Amino acid sequence: MFDMFFPDRYVASAYVIDYEQLYEKGFRGLIFDIDNTLVPHGAPADNRAVNLFGRLKEIGYRCCLISNNQEPRVKMFNEKIKVDYVYNAHKPSTKNYKKAMEIMGTYTDNTLFIGDQLFTDVWGAKRAGIGNILVKPIHPREEVQIVLKRYLERIVLHFYLKSRKEG
Fold first, then answer.
1. Least confident of 2-6, 10-14, 115-119, 139-143
2. Within a 10 A sphere around the Cβ of 120, how many other Cβ atoms?
3. Long-range contact list for 89-96, CB < 8 A, 24+ apart?
4. Does residue 24 have a pLDDT over 80?
5. Which distant-in-sequence residues (6+ apart) come within 8 Å of 60 by Cβ?
6. Verdict on whether the full-model pTM lies above 0.90
7. Is the pLDDT of residue 144 over 60?
């Protein structure tokens, strides 16, 4: 019933993912959400984010940020990161997931999406045919419309975690 929203993987943070292992498995492109995936909502890139993207570039990844935010927000976050980005992405629409892959020169089979929301990030990636990793939100402070979606996400995650135990 909720399967279309189930992430491929669910981890504590974008910062605990074994990116070296994923590269060995053939992944070459990483698409990231920003707010509550990499930093608290509205925050600039911190040292942890800067170090992560430095490491990802050293490994050999192409990276792209896609965000439903407007360009000033995305551009401000990206000042220290210096990767490609797509703003005003209208996630879960698949258009800009595909645009991100075009920019990076990657395909659905060698690209992963990392984000913190089921109904925008994960669902959009799944609809675009991209593997995805759901991360726990970094900070509890969120915009009102997101807080409401989080209640529904808890229900879906309950069934997701239950299906993982049964499987």
1. 139-143
2. 19
3. 91/33, 91/66, 91/120, 91/121, 91/124, 92/119, 92/120, 92/121, 92/123, 92/124, 92/127, 93/124, 94/124, 94/127, 94/128, 96/66
4. yes
5. 23, 28
6. no
7. no
DSSP the chain: --GGG--SEEES-TTSS-HHHHHHTT--EEEE--BTTTBSTTPPP-HHHHHHHHHHHHHT-EEEEE-SS-HHHHHHHHTTT--EEE-S--TT-SHHHHHHHHHHT--GGGEEEEES-IIIIIHHHHHHT-EEEEE--S-S---HHHHHHHHHHHHHHHHHHHHHHH-
Residue 10 forms beta bridges with which residues? 134
Q: Is the pLDDT of residue 162 over 90?
A: no
- What mean pLDDT do residues 50-61 have? 98
Determine the Cα–Cα distance for residues 164 and 138; give it in Å rounded to an integer: 23
What local confidence, expressed as pLDDT, does residue 141 receive? 62
In whole angstroms, how far apart are CA 81 and each of 8, 63, 118, 150?
26, 10, 25, 28
Query: 119 vs 3, 7, 43, 115, CA distance in Å?
Result: 12, 10, 22, 11
Residue-range domains of the chain with CATH = 3-166 (3.40.50.1000)
